[in-house]
Design a protein that fits this description.
By secondary structure, this protein is an alpha+beta fold. It contains 6 helices and 16 strands. Strands 5-4-1-2-3-7-6 form a 7-stranded antiparallel beta sheet. The protein has a 7-stranded antiparallel beta sheet with strand order 10-9-13-14-15-12-11. Helix 3 packs across helix 4.
C-alpha cells in the first residue's frame, strides 16, 4: 500500500526521540554472544520451557540464543509453515471495488484479524476490501488457489492510532462459499513482554507489494525496546504493513507497523530498511 508522508514523518520523529543509531547498535550487538542479565536469562528459559515442556530442550535453546547459534531443529520449517497459514494478503478496495493498494494481516482468533491502523483507520476502509489466504506457491513452485474472504467491520472493529493497529472481524465463509475461515487457524496473543532480546534475528512473513507470500529469515535484527515499541532492522516494501514478525518459527514478537527509511541527500526516501513494531502483541 502507499505509505503516507505523514506516517514516515511520525516514524522519523519517533526515531529521533529514541536517540540511537541503528547501524551503530547493529554493529555493537553483532551476531552473538548476547549480553543478558541473570533475570533476562531466567525469563527466556521460562518462555522456552513453556513452549517445549522439556527442561533439556529449553536449556539447549537458551544456550543457542545466547551464543548466537543458528542451529535449530528441522521442525522449525514445519512450525513456520503452520504459523504462516494465518497470514494473508489484504486487497484494499474503495466503494467502487477499485483496487487502491495492498497490505498484510493475520488472524489472532476465530474470525478476528489484526493489521495496521494506517491500513484500516475506520470501518469503512474494510467494508469493500478482501483478505486473500493461500496466496502463495506450493512445494512444487505452482501458485496455490487463493481463497478470498470479506471483512465484517459491522460485527467487530477496533483501532488504535497511537500504536498503529486495528482489529476487524472476517466473514466465516469464503466469497466462493467453498471454504471456512477456521481452516487457516490463528496466532494466539499474549501480553507477556520480552519475547525476544536485542541482537536476536526475527522471521518476517509478508506480502510485499501485494506479491505472493514471502519470508525473510535473516538481517531482521531486533535492536531496541522503547516504551510500547521495538525497533528492528529489515528489508520490506509497501504491502508489508501489518505483517507479523516471529522469534524463531512460531513465537510472534513485534508487529510490523511503520518505517523510518534511509534517504539520499535530496531527501527522497530509499527502500525501507528500518522499522518499528508494537511491543505488547506477542504470541505464545
Amino acid at each position: 500500500m502507499f505509505i503516507h508522508k505523514s506516517l514516515i514523518q511520525e516514524s522519523e520523529q519517533r526515531f529521533k526521540d529514541a536517540k540511537f543509531s541503528p547501524a551503530t547498535l547493529d554493529k555493537k550487538l553483532g551476531d552473538g554472544p548476547l549480553e543478558m542479565t541473570p533475570q533476562e536469562k531466567q525469563r527466556r528459559y521460562r518462555q522456552l520451557l513453556g513452549a517445549t515442556d522439556d527442561a533439556v530442550a529449553a536449556q539447549a535453546g537458551l544456550e543457542r540464543i545466547i551464543q548466537g547459534n543458528d542451529l535449530d531443529s528441522i521442525n522449525y520449517l514445519a512450525k513456520g509453515m503452520r504459523a504462516s497459514r494465518s497470514i494473508c494478503r489484504i486487497q484494499l478496495k474503495d466503494s467502487g471495488s477499485n483496487l487502491v493498494g495492498y497490505a498484510s494481516g493475520f488472524l489472532i482468533g476465530p474470525g478476528v484479524l489484526m493489521t495496521n491502523h494506517h491500513v484500516f483507520g475506520a470501518p469503512a476502509d474494510a467494508v469493500y476490501s478482501l483478505a486473500d489466504f493461500d496466496y502463495e506457491l506450493d512445494i512444487n513452485g505452482d501458485e496455490r488457489q487463493a481463497m478470498h474472504f470479506r471483512f465484517a467491520p459491522g460485527q467487530l472493529f477496533y483501532t488504535n492510532d497511537r500504536i498503529d493497529y486495528s482489529i476487524v472481524a472476517v466473514a466465516p465463509v469464503s466469497v466462493s462459499g467453498g471454504r471456512n475461515l477456521s481452516d487457516w487457524g490463528w496466532l494466539p496473543l499474549s501480553g507477556e513482554p520480552g519475547k525476544g532480546d536485542p541482537g536476536e534475528y526475527l522471521t518476517i512473513t509478508q506480502h510485499p507489494g501485494g506479491q505472493l507470500k514471502q519470508i525473510c529469515v535473516r538481517e531482521n535484527k531486533l535492536l531496541k525496546y522503547v516504551g510500547d515499541f521495538v525497533w528492528y532492522m529489515t528489508d520490506t516494501t509497501a504491502g508489508s504493513s501489518g505483517s507479523p514478525a516471529f522469534i524463531g518459527s512460531g513465537r510472534l514478537s513485534p508487529f510490523t507497523t511503520a518505517v523510518c527509511p534511509k534517504k539520499i541527500p535530496k531527501g527522497v526516501p530509499l527502500p525501507e530498511t528500518a522499522r518499528f513494531g508494537i511491543r505488547p502483541w506477542t504470541s505464545r
